Amino acid sequence: MKNNAAPLLEIKDLSVSFRTESGRVSVVRDVNLTLAAGEIIGLVGESGSGKSVLSFAVMGLLPPGSGFIDSGEILFAGRNLPALSRREMSGVRGREISMIFQEPMTSLNPVYSIGAQLDEVFVNHGDRDRKANRKRSIKLLERVGIPRAAEIARSYPHQLSGGMRQRVMIAMAMALSPKLLIADEPTTALDVTIQAQILRLIEQMARENGTAVIFISHNLGVIAQLCDVVAVMYSSQIVEITGAERLYQSPAHPYTKSLLECVPQIGMSGKRLNSIEGTVPHPGDEISGCRFAPRCGEAEGRCREQAPELRRLAEGVCCRCWKR
Amino acid sequence: MTAGFWKKLLRNKSALIGGFLIAIVVLTAVFAPLLAPCDPYEMHMDDRFAAPSAAHPMGTDQYGRDLFSRVIYGAVISLQVGIIAVGVSMALGVFLGLISGYFGGWLDRAVMILVDIFLSFPIILLAIAFVAVLGPSPKNVMLALGMIYWTNYARTVRAGVLAAKEEEYVLAARTTGAGDFRVIFLYILPNVMAPVIVMATLGLGTAIISESTLSFLGLGIQPPAASWGSTLAVGLDHLHSAPHISIFPGCCIMLTVLGFNLLGNGIRDVADPKLSRRL
Predict the structure, then answer these.
(1) How many CB pairs under 8 A join A and B?
(2) C-alpha distance across the termini of chain B, in Å
(3) What is the mean pLDDT of residues B149-172?
(4) ipTM, 2 decimals?
(5) Looking at residue A2, what is its pLDDT?
(6) Dist. CA A158–CA A113, nearest whole Å
(7) pLDDT tens-digit series, residues B16-37
(8) How far is A230 from chain B (nearest CA, A)?
(9) Of A12, A99, A267, B144, which cross-links B130 as Cys (Cβ 3.0–4.6 Å)?
């Protein structure tokens, strides 16, 4: 998946913080990430590691008044997104970048029919021909594998199952063939058989449209199935960026290693499942050394004193660790 | 509103009785010229203070005007004042509640301070002050009542917006590129309307009482217009000799307000079962 053209998305030294009653809390620290057109990148990390905040920063949907981009740039197709006006950003959302959420049960407006909500996407971007919009909506529903699409377009969210609703959300996100899709744990709330279908659908839609995908998950199995590249986040930083296969064969960062050891495997009966000692530091805690050092088995003097940078180890592999 | 909503509403006794009372008042108001046996403004000086009889079912007032006809025309005034006052306060309150809840910040603080200022006055005092400044006329009564009762709508809607704007479907709408005003009016407003409809129905009753109160105090609808409140006030002077002048408009006010309250309660029970225990 190497692409020498200018990347579609380039996040440079991005730091995001939240204003809370006890002062500023940094939730994303110095994140650098590039994504080529058509590439699928997985973003893994524990709850609270900053994955979702990162995606909201890209969407320009940090909670107004409390979430701030402190520094850095988000270059999307040559434009710095945080510098765009509210109106310009509304034009980008949906048309060029769209998003799917974790909870399909609550991501649809209960008071409008499925079709009306899909039509809205076209209306938001200036197409007001109602009949044509509805035709496009029905076609979209067919594309995401919804049977009796015309009938479903007239039904309301509560009449559909979770899997169906997530299909509708995907249809909505893909309506205008965006260049970038952010999928924030889109399969977490679904049962396993539906999960596989939805994953396949996201992959198929992305490949057909040439859409790049940021796939956020804490499920390493899902990431392996779908992604080209994986970025691992720990306590508001990216600690490793590597190829999806390489992640399993030779994880570089101690955190990634321990994360993999926590995944149960068939045939490991009788062995205790590993867990990582200690807890994730609070995002606001300023730690002088490596943020993982307190839980790291390999940590030594320097790890606790100096913060490591994200360094390039090999072609396509970056790691934030002194010991590599 | 779906068909299921209407079916449930028809099965709700409170809503049914309330709706029935309101229907009578509305039909009376609409067909007032047809229903009234006499001209409500025509005086018969030889027939003053007549007790209820076949010719005058509710008797006559101090100028010999047919009270039944005046009460029928009073329904027009009461409904008109109620609907317009509620319309003004609802439009104002819902709009301010929406923008203050959605945008937050200084706008929110400013609106809420305004609400607190309005709520710190006794309502009837505020109404009297408004009408005293604007001058007593039907238009000003409606305006004054509208300017007073918006605070409830603003607060309720703001609270609803605060909850609704965190909903994922609102976030999802924004990710598809919906602008602020589209999000507010298309995604948030319909989801906060249920309590507003209930409040508006109950508010109609309150507005009618307030109009009657203002008219009773001589600040509302001015004679010779046949407002229930002003007729009631006139009757007060003759309560011992001709109590029917006060009793009939009083009953009309009571039954109309009761009707709106019953209907409002019924709608609340049907529209939002969670709400009925809280209020």
Answers:
(1) 72
(2) 23
(3) 91
(4) 0.75
(5) 46
(6) 10
(7) 999 999 999 999 999 988 888 8
(8) 24
(9) B144
The helix or strand, by DSSP H or E, that contains position A35, with its residue range, turns out to be strand A23-35
- Chain B positions touching chain A (beta carbons under 8 Å): 104-105, 167-180, 182, 186-187, 190-191
> In the beta sheet, which residues pair with residue A35?
A9
With beta carbons less than 8 A apart as the criterion, state whether A291 and A302 touch. Answer: no
Ordered domains of chain B (ranges, CATH): 3-278 (1.10.3720.10)
A124 touches chain B (CB under 8 A): yes
Take residue A271 and report the two structure tokens written for it. 């062995």
> Where does B40-136 have alpha helices with state H?
67-103, 105-119, 123-134
Cβ of A124 and B172 within 8 Å?
Answer: no
Domain architecture of chain A: domains with CATH = 9-96+178-248 (3.40.50.300)
- Average pLDDT score, chain A: 88
Q: Are B221 and B197 in contact (CB under 8 A)?
A: no
The structure's pTM equals 0.77
Rg (CA), chain B: 22
Average pLDDT, chain B: 87
Helix/strand/coil for A160: coil
For residue B214, report the phi and psi dihedrals to the nearest 5 degrees: -60, -40
The tokens for A32 are 């650098």
SS3 per residue for A162-190: HHHHHHHHHHHHHCCCCCEEEEECCCCCC
What pLDDT does A3 receive?
Answer: 47
